[in-house]
């Protein structure tokens, strides 16, 4: 239980990668704050179940990560945090000239700007305590690009840049900031991409997974949310105290090509 006594906030964590990371942080002993834009009974039940299974304190706090003020209020309402995982994200696939402006704005706000707002709110207490970990969930698309994903690629490249700047400003203060760059992880957000990719490429499901989605992932396998969680726990551990301002690719070799 190497993270016992630490409080972790994971944005966008009622499903997918965020939920997987939250589970691993809880299993490592951290108290956890779950978050999403909804405020349903199922959200609070997730927190209750996680607390019961891990023995740590778990809360669910609703906040819309497209709204800067709500991002900052999340940190305040949680009572601050030792560990901040900026995971919230959405996706839309379209040709650049057909990409809806409102989708661009939403993706930039949720995938990039939210990480700025939450980090800005969390850092003063981390500095005062002399310890903190910020883990930004970027993407293989934060290091390389694909067609039809202009907003997502731009936002994730921005997350990598924000990670580096945050790390440099936090250096020597006991606070690290790193980005995890997953390849394809079979989560609800990826499931939603499959029909769009099928339409764009005029392929059936199995073919689009093999020849489009995993064509650049040499392992030929989806990564798992548990692997994302394990990587995040490592970055929060004392073993990673001198790892900052960098990216860790969990992409089956995608960015090695």
TrEMBL record:
Which source organism?
Answer: Roseinatronobacter domitianus
Record key words, sorted: Oxidoreductase
For the keyword Oxidoreductase, the answer is: yes
What's one GO MF term for it?
3-hydroxybutyrate dehydrogenase activity
Q: What is this protein called?
A: 3-hydroxybutyrate dehydrogenase
> For this UniProt entry, which residues form the secretion signal?
none
Question: EC number(s) on record?
Answer: 1.1.1.30
Q: Give the enzyme class.
A: oxidoreductase
InterPro entries with a match to the protein in the record: 3-OHbutyrate_DH, NAD(P)-bd_dom_sf, Sc_DH/Rdtase_CS, SDR, SDR_fam
Q: Write out the similarity annotation.
A: Belongs to the short-chain dehydrogenases/reductases (SDR) family.
């Amino acid at each position: 239980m190497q993270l016992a006594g630490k409080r972790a906030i994971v944005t966008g964590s009622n499903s997918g990668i965020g939920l997987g990371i939250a589970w691993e942080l809880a299993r490592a002993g951290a108290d956890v704050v779950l978050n999403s834009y909804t405020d349903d009974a199922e959200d609070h039940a997730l927190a209750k179940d996680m607390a019961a299974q891990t023995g740590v304190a778990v809360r669910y706090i609703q906040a819309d990560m497209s709204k800067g003020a709500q991002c900052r209020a999340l940190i305040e309402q949680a009572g601050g945090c030792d560990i901040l995982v900026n995971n919230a994200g959405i996706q839309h696939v379209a040709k650049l000239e057909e990409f809806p402006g409102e989708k661009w704005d939403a993706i930039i706000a949720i995938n990039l700007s939210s990480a700025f707002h939450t980090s800005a709110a969390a850092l003063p207490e981390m500095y005062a305590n002399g310890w903190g970990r910020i883990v930004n969930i970027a993407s293989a698309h934060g290091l390389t690009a694909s067609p039809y994903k202009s907003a997502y690629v731009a936002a994730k490249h921005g997350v990598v840049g924000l990670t580096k700047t945050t790390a440099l400003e936090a250096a020597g203060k006991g606070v690290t900031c790193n980005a995890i760059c997953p390849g394809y992880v079979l989560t609800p957000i990826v499931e939603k991409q499959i029909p769009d990719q099928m339409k764009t490429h005029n392929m059936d499901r199995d073919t689009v997974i093999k020849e489009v989605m995993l064509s650049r992932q040499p392992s030929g396998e989806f990564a798992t949310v548990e692997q994302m969680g394990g990587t995040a726990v490592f970055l929060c551990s004392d073993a990673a105290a001198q790892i900052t301002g960098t990216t860790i690719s969990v992409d089956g070799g995608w960015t090695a090509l």
